Structure formats: C-alpha cells, structure tokens
Amino acid sequence: MYPMKQQLLGKTIRLLLLEDDPEYSHFVRSALAELLEIRPVDNWLKQFEILDVESLEEALGCIEKIEFDAILADLFVLDSKGMNTAESLYSKCPLIPIVALIEQEDPNLTVKLLQSGVQDVLVKNELDCLPLGKAIRCAIERSMAVKTSWISTPRDSLTGLLNLPSIVEFGRSYFNLMRHCSEKSAVASFEIGSLENVKLDSGRHGEQWLLLEAAELLRRYSESFDLVAYGGNGRFIVMSPEQNSISLLNTLKIIEQALIDKDKVRGGRPLQISLSSADSREIDWSDLFRG
C-alpha cells in the first residue's frame, strides 16, 4: 500500500493506470518494462511504479491519497465513458498530466479531450513501448513547464484575477483553514454558460469584454469575498470567510443582475448565467473544479 500523499524521490515515475481490461493492463506493464530494457541512449526515462485501478471511482480515491506523476487512462471503463472520464479526472487533479487511451482514431473526440486539459491521446491498438513511454514522459515535461509558467504568472492574463492553477495550488490551504476556523465561511461559482453565443453575436472581442465586465463587478464587491479566481470557460470561483452560502449567493445574484443589465445594450441573445454556493464545510475541495 502506498503511503498517504507520498512524493517521489526522483528515481521513479509513479503512474496511475485506469484500465478495466486485465490483459491490456498487463500489456502496458510489459511495454514499459521492455522500454527499460531497451534503455534509450539519452536515458530520458526512469523506472515506473504503476498502480492499476479498474474504475473511475477507484482512480479518484487513489488520487486523494497518492502523489502521482502521470495518469494513463482508458476513457471507457466500468463506471464512466468518454469525456466524463477525462473531465472527472481533470477536475480532481488539474495539475497531474493525463494521457488518454481510446479504442480507435476519433479526431473530434481527440480535439475535445485536448481542450478539456488532457495532455495526449493514444489509440490502444497502435501502441508500442517507445511511443507509450515518450507520450508519458512528454506529458510530464509539458505539465512541469506549464506549472512553472503558472507559478510565475499567477493571474489570468485577461481578467487579472487569480487563474485556476493558482487557486488549485495556493487556495487549498486557505480553503481548509476557512472550513475549520469560521462557521459562516462559504464558496460559490458564477458561470457564464453562453460564451459561444456571445462570440457568435459579437465576436471574440465581445466575449472578452463580457468577461472583463464580470471580473470588474466581482472586484467591486470584493469586500464581500476574500478570494476570487477565474477558472476559464466563463467560470468564476469566490470564497468568503464571513458569509454563509445563502448570503454569498444573494451577493452573486446582485452581480448577475448588474451584468445582465450591462449586457442588454449588446442586443444579442440573453446571457445564460448559473450560480451555485455551499457552506465550505459541506463540500470537498475538488468539488470546486467540477464542470
């Protein structure tokens, strides 16, 4: 059994393998073992430490306990199919690189997966040891580069608010402190679900202007919040140590109406805004990043 949230010492690559076909799990293990026997001349790959699970539920449970370097995931398993598998994994661990496995070439699905945060997509019956190893290593390297960039640039370039990686990286401790120290603390999300329509009606600049307007309204009410972040795709996350979920939701409703009033001059289709809030003691940290 792996120790709780144990981190690597730099000698192995800890891999979570989500696969409900035991024969294919064996193939993956054999392929990676064969790769180590080949020993690429530039020594770019380390020993693998692999944990197998057969369901998404098991995978999500392991992610809470163990620090993985990468996830190799068949998207069609016992309890989850396709995009749901990828989105559930990414929402649980947005800073761990995910390499998705699919049964056959599917360009549309591949594009959606890459847009959702997956690092690479591989076709299962086309895999060999070298392409598999390179995909995993490249996913890890890209993820490390992105993390470095995020740490040096903690704010979203458009809205100026904290970006998703920053709140994932630095907000967890604050969230846990808030849960234990304040009975009134709450978290909420403010999501504009009609960005594609805005882009069609007003172009890319119209979409960006709407996000800027939303960010400005959130700043205007910042005395009601202690932390505000933009998670991308029109979704804002706020935390308050002084308001309960009902009070926080009422504040967001004021912001919602102000944004709708501002947007009426655009003359396009009505905005679709969804709000949700919960007392911080009622939810898990990872719930904040579920779609």
Supply the CATH superfamily name of the largest domain: Response regulator
CATH topology of the largest domain: Rossmann fold
Q: List the secondary-structure elements in sequence, H or E.
A: EHEHEHEHEHEHEHEEHE
In whole angstroms, how far apart are the ends?
A: 31 Å
Number of structurally distinct domains:
2
Taking Cα atoms only, what radius of gyration do you get, to the nearest Å?
21 Å
SS-derived structural category: alpha/beta
How many strands, what sense, and barrel or not for the largest sheet?
5 strands, parallel
Write the SSE topology:
Layout lengths: L11 E7 L3 H17 L8 E7 L2 H10 L4 E5 L8 H10 L5 E5 L4 H9 L4 E4 L5 H24 L9 E2 H18 L4 E7 L2 H26 L6 E6 L2 E6 L4 H19 L9 E7 L12
Parallel strand pairs: 1-2, 1-3, 3-4, 4-5, 6-8
Antiparallel strand pairs: 7-9, 7-10, 8-9
Quick tags:
46% helix; 5-stranded parallel beta sheet; Rossmann fold; 5-stranded mixed beta sheet; 10 strands; Alpha-Beta Plaits; alpha/beta; 291 residues
Notes on the protein architecture:
The chain has two domains: 12-145, Response regulator (Rossmann fold, 3-Layer(aba) Sandwich); 162-289, Alpha-Beta Plaits. Helices cover 46% and strands 19% of the residues. It contains eight helices and ten strands. Helix 4 links the parallel strand 4 (98-102) and strand 5 (120-123). It has 291 residues and is an alpha/beta fold. The strands form two sheets. The protein has a five-stranded parallel β-sheet, sandwiched between helices.
